[in-house]
């Protein structure tokens, strides 16, 4: 090979390397702007939640309420002979509430251990307990619209079902969450009045009672309930009251009249509550008398009279003791013979232990004793006998504030 040939080959090789290098550099110079453009496009120029929405979240509350425990129970008396052991989710609910405007508020709660079937009258499932909007119409006047708690009185009803291990007979069978409209008026600093117009039930009568509806019972044009209450405070809040009166039209020309007188005394570590309940029902809405006397039709002209007493004492910042005592008497044919049917008695001693300072997370241990005493008339004419239930529970109660 001649020297000239070698130079020519080396030149060609160098020229090729130069061409490749130049192409590579040009490629980089071309790609760099694209890479920069891509990075700009992929980066978030705005946050996922805009600043104005973040401000809104400051006024939103999200709660997750749980009562879970282990229970051991026995039934004795009459045809009842049963023992049971089980874990149980007594209360599980998710709630969202908040302030949308300086005069507009909302409240929503879904209880997961309730039936979610859409009701034929109010078009919501029973699991949707709260779904209402509150508007501050004036400094002392509030307007509520949607599905809400009825303004019944008494302190047993004032507690969430999260905190009540077992209700007395009336509130254990009452329809507490219904759709309608209401107003509250803060007349004075220590006195507040409320009035509601509500559906008296969530289902049409035929869907609720089916084949056991009496022949003379007809669906009214509007199954409506009127509820009024008064909240009072005396002696710097040491004595408080929640009184209520209501009348509901259940079926055509017949309904339920219900009175509740609730009292509360609070002083340092002691809280004492007493409720008196009276319910006269032309159609048995609680179903207790109906379940005793007949499987074929709904009982009429029944009466329930109750007493409920609860004592709370705080032994220390971490320990609190409770004692609940209750009675409930039921009568049939009130307008004629007024047949005494039964009285139920209840006793619920409870101990709370709250180990944490900044969160309401409670361990509890409780005994629930119920005795159902039937009258001689009921035993002889209706074939029922008295029985009792004894139950022991341990578990947790946790109203958790997530936001």
Features:
403 residues; alpha+beta; Porin; 18% helix; globular; disordered N terminus; Porin_O/P; Phosphate-selective porin O/P
Please give a structural write-up.
With 403 residues, the protein is of the alpha+beta class. It has one domain: Porin. The protein is 18% helix and 53% strand. It has seven helices and 16 strands. It has a 16-stranded antiparallel β-barrel with strand order 1-2-3-4-5-6-7-8-9-10-11-12-13-14-15-16. Strand 12 (300-314) and strand 13 form a beta hairpin. The longest helix has 40 residues, at 3-42. The radius of gyration is 33 Å and the shape is globular. Residues 1-14 have low confidence and may be disordered. It comes from Christiangramia gaetbulicola. This is Phosphate-selective porin O/P. It holds the Pfam family Porin_O_P.
Q: Find the structural class using helix and strand composition.
A: alpha+beta
* CATH architectural name: Beta Barrel
Total domains: 1
- Please work out how many helical segments DSSP would assign: 7
Distance between the termini: 86 Å
Write the layout of secondary structure elements.
Layout: H1 3-42, H2 51-57, E1 60-77, E2 80-101, E3 104-111, E4 128-138, E5 141-149, H3 155-158, H4 169-173, E6 177-188, E7 191-199, H5 205-209, E8 224-234, E9 239-251, E10 254-267, E11 270-283, H6 288-293, E12 300-314, E13 319-332, E14 339-353, E15 362-374, H7 376-382, E16 387-401
